[in-house]
Design goal:
Blueprint (H helix, E strand, L loop, with lengths): L1 E4 L8 E4 L32 H13 L5 E6 L3 E8 L2 H12 L6 E8 L4 H10 L16 E4 L5 E3 L3 E2 L1 E4 L4 E9 L3 E6 L8 E2 L4 E4 L9 E4 L5 E9 L11 E3 H13 L10 E10 L2
Parallel strand pairs: 4-5, 7-17
Antiparallel strand pairs: 1-2, 1-14, 3-4, 6-9, 8-14, 9-13, 10-11, 10-12, 10-15, 11-16, 15-17
Helix pairs in contact: 1-2
């Protein structure tokens, strides 16, 4: 949860906004399945290829819900990365990986991003910004700077974010918490102007005027994420509720991106970041 305050220099407006966090663990790290010495048999079992192993992994990934898992063939085997939406899905994927025939080296780093984070990351991927792979987010993707570079925030600390757009347009910044709420940072009723210029930073969470909010970390704690998009046209009006349920909002965000003109869909730039809040 987070306490949101207006500019301290003006009369304070207090409200309690849910802002949960909690970092997701890695599914597997550096898993290696080296080939065992061949048994003393007349005919050796053919060594499985990376392509064959990839088919099995991709089939398992296709059965997951709210997941973004990428597989790539390497010189020795497979590299698997991305996220799943639950510990149960992480266990299912791990079981498939460990059941692969010996002889395929695996490097697997898959994080657990519970809903609604996994859905938000899926939307970011559709908009051109896969989580955890900045190289695929494009040169126009906005950059995100945090007052805590570790992305770990403790109770009572403030959350400050600097967004620098890579292209001119309209900025949308949302805080999505693990409890299923979305806090609109831009645009919102106190900050209706969402226009940005390329290369000019926008700071959120620092009270420079009465239009700025201060975000203070409070319980409950758990995983959360920041989702920032820059589009040619505004995605939503500024008079939306400042806090709303994630389900309807994410459905609306997906529909708004899909409704962009065909020539504008390529001009969507997106960046996401997962952070953690803790009690101490």
């Amino acid at each position: 949860m987070i306490r949101s305050l207006s500019d301290p220099s003006s009369p304070r407006r207090r409200g309690r906004l849910p802002l949960a966090a909690g970092i997701a663990g890695l599914l597997m790290a550096g898993v290696s399945q080296a080939q065992s010495p061949p048994a003393a048999t007349a005919v050796e079992t053919p060594r499985p290829t990376a392509a064959e192993a990839r088919k099995e992994v991709d089939a398992a990934v296709g059965r997951l819900t709210c997941a973004g898992v990428r597989t790539a063939e390497t010189a020795k085997g497979l590299r698997i990365s991305g996220y799943v939406g639950s510990d149960e899905d992480a266990g299912s994927l791990k079981a498939v990986l460990t059941a692969l025939p010996p002889g395929v080296d695996l490097e697997a780093r898959v994080a657990v991003r519970p809903w609604p984070l996994c859905e938000a990351l899926g939307i970011a991927g559709l908009a051109g910004g896969p989580e955890g792979n900045p190289a695929e987010q494009g040169v126009d993707a906005p950059t995100l700077g945090f007052n805590r570079p570790s992305l770990i925030y403790r109770k009572g600390e403030t959350l400050e974010i600097t967004v620098t757009a890579g292209m001119p347009g309209h900025l949308t910044v949302d805080y999505i918490d693990g409890d299923g709420s979305v806090i609109h940072m831009v645009p919102m009723r106190l900050r209706r102007d969402d226009r940005v210029e390329a290369g000019r930073p926008v700071t959120l969470g620092v009270a420079k005027s009465s239009a700025d909010r201060i975000y203070t970390i409070a319980p409950p704690f758990g995983p959360a994420m920041i989702l920032a998009l820059v589009t040619r046209e505004p995605l939503f009006p500024a008079d939306r509720e400042e806090v709303e349920p994630a389900g309807p909002y994410l459905a609306g965000l997906r529909a708004a991106l899909a409704a962009l003109p065909a020539d504008a869909r390529g001009a969507v730039a997106v960046r996401s970041a997962v952070l953690t809040t803790v009690a101490e």
